[in-house]
Write a structure and sequence with these properties.
four-stranded antiparallel sheet, alpha+beta, flat, single chain, 3 helices, 128 residues, Alpha-Beta Plaits, 6 strands
Length: 128
């Protein structure tokens, strides 16, 4: 089972375009990432630039409306992720508990949808 662990840093919606995480946090994250790798569960990971450097496309009436960040109306924006492969949701949650997060940060654990999770008509529409 694949799970994405989404990092939602506290206050990230207000981060400046030139924001970088503190060096001590990066060192702790690197150690944590190494533990995921050694355990053989890590499939991928990345940090994301702050929302102030992002762009959103909102679709309405078949037309996209483009808005550059920051996004004042948004709360709890994603700052990065890990993609892991484990045997259960409980195991994914245990890995998330070990992450070196700061007070107020959130990790959201979400299972990745596999084609086998869908009914036959959807698998057929996807060419499977």
């Amino acid at each position: 089972m694949r799970f994405m662990m989404l990092v939602i840093p506290k206050g990230y919606e207000k981060a400046a375009a030139d924001f970088v995480p503190p060096a001590d946090l990066v060192a702790k994250m690197t150690k944590y990432n190494e533990s995921l790798t050694k355990a053989g569960v890590l499939l991928g990971l990345d940090g994301l630039h702050p929302p102030a450097k992002g762009t959103r496309l909102r679709f309405s009436g078949g037309k996209p409306k483009v808005t550059d960040g920051p996004f004042a109306e948004s709360k709890e924006l994603i700052g990065g992720y890990w993609m892991i492969q484990v045997k259960s949701k409980e195991e994914a949650v245990e890995w998330a508990k070990r992450a070196p997060m700061q007070d107020g940060d959130i990790i959201e654990v979400r299972q990745v949808q596999e084609i086998e999770d869908f009914p036959a008509d959807v698998r057929k529409a996807a060419g499977r």
